Amino acid sequence: MLPSITGQYLARYRRLGAGDPAAGLLPVTGAQRRFLLVRSLDPAGRADIVPMFFAFPRGTVDPVRLRAAANHLAARHPALRSRPCVVRATPVLRPGPADVPLHQVACAPGEDAHDALRRALAGWAADGPPMRLFLAQHGPDAAEEVLAVVLDHTACDGQSLARIVGELGAAYRDRLGPDDLSPAEAAAELAAYQDAVLRQLDAEERAGSPRALAYWGERLRAVRERAPAPGARPIPAELPTGAAELTLPSPATGVPFPVLLDACRAAAAVLYGTGAVSPIGYPWGGRPPGAEPVLGCFLNTVVFPADTSRMGVPDITATEWWDDLDRADTPFDEVVRAARSGGAQWSGRLDGLLTVDDARHRTPLRLGPVAGREVHIDGRQLRAPFAVSATQGPELHLRMVWDRAVLEDRAAEDAFAALCGALPAAAPAR
User: Fold this and answer.
1) Which pTM was predicted?
2) Taking the chain (430 residues) in consecutive chunks of 10 residues, what is each chunk's mean pLDDT?
3) 3 state SS for the chain
């Protein structure tokens, strides 16, 4: 049995002499390692980014005050001021000074704020700060302005986003800047971040046991991505991604996750054919036990083998999913290697993605007395042919986006209809 990828990484990191935060290098989690690998393999070197968009009445945003508040967050949280680098073939993060830029984005002729922000994010430079702000107005007479708070995915996960929104609003309210954080507080946050990542890596190393790898090798033995390679079709002149959405009544306890996985299985059957076993990824995880609740990326990508020949078999997805969760800490790169060792002809590309967001306790970004309205902006890059998001609040909001360079609109729309039809008590779209 080969040494685990995580174990090899930890050994290399420790040989760097980076065990002391004063050495200036921080380790990366398995999730961060995956994002950095995907970036290195991308022909354009694109980073995975996570944007949040908020509409405010025109004149709400004070750019100087907002940038100071963002830099206060970056000074406190190492993940928001650290840039990835490779030292002796070992990916690490190098913390730097707080430096969150705020870009005022002007609309070109014929554009609105959404178009301008989409264009600005398409030009995201991977070697820049992990947190950036963009502010655009719909036009000279617009009543609203749209603020984008954007993070490199190596610096955040779902738990991080809610905290960033809350702390950014609080720092703006209290007029805080980076100098309002003492050196002692900054040092404590740095030590807590490193401790959390090392605890996460220890958990990931344990999750890469021979027994867990044998499980994943057998579980994913028949998996092979069925979607055409990215760029298989010419990119349309309009938006590079398509989108469809549906709002349904939501049970008080939310829709069970296995039900959503089965719905994605139904979509995959339409897109890739019945009988295929498509890899569908979903984020799962959280901070390791005993770690401080630091900002960062601690969510693993777990792979669900969507065997489309088994649709409609009662309870099989729930049973298998619970077994998967017992091994959900096994890092993605370890899982891919185990699958390939088990005979899977799988490159590691995913045929689809599923994310679930609980919005029942989410607070909006508040700048002073004004609460922003969160908005969606379509047309951004995808790392899979299609991605489904399920937002659970008083209602269930389903949204599917797809890469038009891979999938045709008609096929994707049919797949979304199959996905919605696989859910109980489907209701008309609203």
Assistant:
1) 0.91
2) 84 75 80 90 85 95 98 98 91 95 93 92 92 90 92 91 94 98 96 95 94 96 87 67 88 82 95 92 92 93 91 77 95 95 93 87 88 87 91 87 93 96 61
3) CCCCHHHHHHHHHHHCCCCCHHHCCECCCHHHHHHHHHHHHCCCCCCCEEEEEEEEECCCCCHHHHHHHHHHHHHHCHHHCEEEEEECCEEEEEECCCCCCEEEECCCCCCCHHHHHHHHHHCCCCCCCCEEEEEEECCCCCCEEEEEEEEEHHHCCHHHHHHHHHHHHHHHHCCCCHHHCCHHHHHHHHHHHHHHHHHHHHHHHHHCCHHHHHHHHHHCCCCCCCCCCCCCCCCCCCCCEEEEEEEEECCCCCCCHHHHHHHHHHHHHHHHCCCCEEEEEEEEECCCCCCCCCCCCCEEEEEEEEEHHHCCCCCHHHHHHHHHHCCCCCCHHHHHHHHHHCCCCCCCCCCEEEEEEECCCCCCCEECCEECEEECCCCCCCCCCEEEEEEECCEEEEEEEEECCCCCHHHHHHHHHHHHHCCCCCCCCC
Which tens digit of pLDDT belongs to each residue from 159-203?
889 899 999 999 999 999 999 999 999 999 999 999 999 999 999
